[in-house]
Amino acid sequence: MHPRAAVTVLCTAGIVVALMQTIIVPLIPALPTLLHAEPGDTTWALTITLLAGAVITPIGGRLGDMYGKRRMLLASMACVAAGSVVCALSPSLLPFLIGRGLQGLGFGTIALGISVMRDIVPPLRLGSSVGTMSASLGIGGALGLPVAALLAQHVGWHALFWMCAVAAGLSALGMIATIPADRGHSGGRFDILGALGLAVLLTCLLLPLSKGASWGWGSPLTIGAFVAFVVIGSMWWLWERRLPNALIDTRIAVERPVMLTNIASVATGFAFYSMQLMPIQVLMAPTAGPVGLGYQMVTASLILAPSGILMFIFSHVSAWLTAHVGPRISLSLGATVIGVGYVVFIVVLASGRDITWWLMLMIACLIGAGLGIAYAAMPALIMRAVPITQTGEANGVNALMRVVGTSTSAAVVGMILTWSIVTVDGPDGTVTSVPDTSGYLTASIISLCACAVAAGLALAIPQGRRLDEETV
Fold first, then answer.
1. φ, ψ for residue 137 (rounded to 5)?
2. Where are the alpha helices (DSSP H) in 90-191?
3. Is the pLDDT at 466 greater than 50, yes or no?
4. pLDDT at residue 235, rounded to an integer
5. In terms of Cα–Cα distance, which of 69, 78, 156 is closest to 111?
6. pLDDT per residue over 45-99, tens digit each?
7. Is residue 248 a contact partner of residue 194, using CB atoms and an 8 Å limit?
8. What is the pLDDT of residues 308-348, one digit of tens each?
């Protein structure tokens, strides 16, 4: 079994999992009709996948360390396939949400795949392989919107989920054929109480972040959830510190290299998702609005799709940089390149110049290139700082930090754009609500600050850490 074939299969599985986040987007306006449900209830189709993915990522990493990463990867693909079938067959909202939750349980695939690569890929090729696996998130995200929009429009929405089921099944077969059985794992007892506590803890954080706009940021439900997050988080931390075989090794988590990398990952995830939210709205907003180009979703998605290709290409650039100057420089450079994309957007908006499709393409490509460099450097930093028996757990926590960053971005940027809403006449005579220039400017400035935080923290990561023989 050749490692290159295993890497190809793992990256394909990563793209399949990333598709789960975007295939639902073209269906959102039609879900109330398709599933005979209220519009407010159908938004759970996005929320439940996010929650399930956030919870399973660190837990799946720990289970992979304990019982075998290959086994957990196959379980992840099985969940994606089963969830896709359930969604394809769902006549109503409840089974559809169950299916979307099962799809979210596959989100640990990327972190587990990176950990598997440390076990099977030769040291000289590990950096580029890890970079490609990290970039699969962007590739899947970039391809998801146009593919989903085309299939939903010309074939039918059920075809989206049948496609995902087939892709997950083929990925699982590829894993069986190319990934060897684990050479060793840590074993031990699984921390069930810690896992339940982490699930509740993340729910209390991510649920109000994703639903706060509809609940009201000052509502008792939103505030109560955040208070519960603080209280439960403190109790969970104390519980984990006293266990010899805890779900997450908090002692390693607070070591400077790991902690700074994870905080930088939150900031980078924030900057990443802001540029997922804003360009598509600019491209699709009516031309009569303050900022809008009036494209249909398929066209707008195709304009932004090259960013995923750039992310893939620059993940290999990141591997080269990491080999020559170290992963902390790569992470800092990646955050800086993302920041340049925001600077261009801010300058154009502030100067009052016309927004064009090629300008949005250039900004998206800058963001994609920066993400390819930054996201490929994060696992390299983590793997330099932790023992090989904890790579699944540590990469899972790092992936979770990115989810926290993207969720926070969705809440903050969504709130800012909502506050800046103005109404304009659409091309068909309908009244459309769109953000104005001030909303985009404010959100971009905050995201630029997140880039600066990530770049600065990356440079503060100590570089004199021991590398295991299996790493680059």
1. -60, -45
2. 93-104, 109-120, 123-154, 157-178
3. no
4. 95
5. 69
6. 888 998 898 889 889 988 888 888 999 999 999 999 999 999 999 999 999 999 9
7. yes
8. 888 888 988 998 998 889 999 999 999 999 999 999 999 99
Q: Quick check: 348 and 289 in contact, CB under 8 A? A: no
Question: Contact at 8 Å (CB) between 145 and 301?
Answer: yes
| 263 three-state secondary structure | helix
The conformation of residue 355, written as its DSSP 8-state character, comes to P
Burial 102-135 (b: 16+ CB within 10 A, else e): bbbbbbbbbbbbbbbbbbbbeeeebbbbbbbbbb
Tens-digit pLDDT profile for residues 246-259 = 888 888 888 999 99
Instruction: Tell if the pTM clears 0.85, that is, is over it.
Output: yes
Give the residue among 400, 405, 410 at the shortest CA–CA distance from 54: 400
User: Tokens at residue 274, please?
Assistant: 């802001």
467 pLDDT higher than 50:
no
Which sign, positive or negative, has the C-alpha torsion 171, 21, 274, 347?
Answer: positive
Q: How many CB atoms lie within 10 A of CB 252?
A: 18
> Maximum distance among all alpha carbons in the chain?
65
The H or E element spanning position 433 is strand 431-435
User: Is the distance from CB of 434 to CB of 288 less than 8 angstroms?
Assistant: no
Amino acid 1: pLDDT: 55
d(CA 168, CA 87): 14
pLDDT tens track for 184-200: 666 667 888 999 999 99
User: How many other CB atoms sit within 10 Å of the CB of residue 463?
Assistant: 13
Please report how many Cα atoms fall inside a 13 Å half-sphere around the Cα of residue 173, on the Cβ side.
7
Contact 245, 442 (CB under 8 A): no
List Cα–Cα distances, 7 to 107, 126, 267, 392, in angstroms: 17, 10, 28, 16
